[in-house]
Amino acid sequence: MTPxxxxxxxxxxxxxxxxxxxxxxxxxxxxxxxxLFNLPPPAPDFYRxxxxxxxxxxxxxxxxxxxxxxxxxxxxxxxxxxxxxMTPKIRSQLAEALHVPIERVVISSASRFPxxxxxxxxxxxxxMARDGGEQEEHFLIAPFDVAxxxxxxxxxxxxxxxxxxxxxxxxxxxxxxxxxxxxxxxVAFVFxxxxxxxxxxxxxxxxRLGRDPRxxxxxxxxxxxxxxxxxxxxxxQERLRRYVEDRTAMVGAIAHDLRTPLTRLRFRIENxxxxxxxxxxADIDQMxxxxxxxxxxxxxxxxxxxxxxxxxSSLLESLCDEMAETGADxxxxxxxxxxxxxxxxxxxxxxxNLLENAVKFxxxxxxxxxxxxxxxxVEIEDDGPGIPTEExxxxxxxxxxxxxxxxxxxGGIGLGLAVVRSIARGHGGDVxxxxxxxxxxxxxxxxxx
Length: 449
What we know:
Elements (H helix, E strand, L loop, with lengths): L12 H26 L7 E3 H8 L12 E6 L12 H12 L6 E4 L9 H13 L8 E3 L3 E5 L5 E6 L7 H44 L12 H45 L5 H29 L5 E4 H14 L4 E3 L6 E4 L1 H19 L2 E7 L3 E7 L34 H11 L3 E6 L5 E8 L1
């Protein structure tokens, strides 16, 4: 028989992640190359010499696509860092247009030459010709400072206005890369969903195992690593199931086998004096009662009950009505309808035990039901003395009783609350006791929806 975790394994998780990263990097490089070879080079802000002269003369031209030229006066001349072969010609042309010696004209820039792509020069020449200017007119590319020394020794500087934020061509590049990221997003989403789906299903299976130890083995196909994890998970589930069943069967066998020596003891005490025989018979009866309770506990925990949709409000109302018919003070607050999957017989026994304890030790039982995002909550309150804090958890231990006496009238055998917690945890939930500040005890049952 082929195990449920088998199947032809897909590529390993490492291989799928490597493929995702490789495809993403390759796509990013392809998009970058397409942008590089197909988009025209960005044309920086350029300014004709005639426009710079107009700014020095106090009538800077107005620009629609370029930053305006600004003029300021400083005490010291900027350093001359533009020393290309065209710099002397540009300085000479500026000096001649401004009627000053060439020594009083300085051209500086933050970089030696901001643009070196020949295509940029062609774009600038074409734009100058399109704008109606002289195609061979000299120009400067921002950023730059053109300084002219005045008669008082101070320097007048013309420069393009400093920009804030990205240039238009930079904004276009950012937009194109953003669009390329949008194109890649669905691909990344598909890969990520494919990689995370087996892990998510694996998590659901682990949660289902916590609710139902007898849940069917996990059947999941995925990467090689996932298949190995599924096999280990199913092996662990099977070992846990066998371990619990073996321990439960052992307890049942011990309890069953104890009946034989107890029966012999009952016959042997017939010749014991009356006063001693009565005490010994009471002890034997109590031991037989404990054995019967243990066998019932084992029988209930090993029973594979069918789980069906169950509405908790109706179940609690029927239980309270049945107890009220016998004179018990029980009541259920009307609340929301909560439906969950569970074993009806087991949950009936769980709430019956809690309601009977509330009536027996607290005089009355008040139940209410509500739900949060993931669980159904049932709270059963009584007016009893409560439980000391140090014993709140111990009362759920098998055969533990706060009353030292072992008579049925003072507390029973001590398996009731152990059964309650076993049923709740078998459904993936839990049971806790909380002492109310005004007195009384609240039993809180949490069951996953």
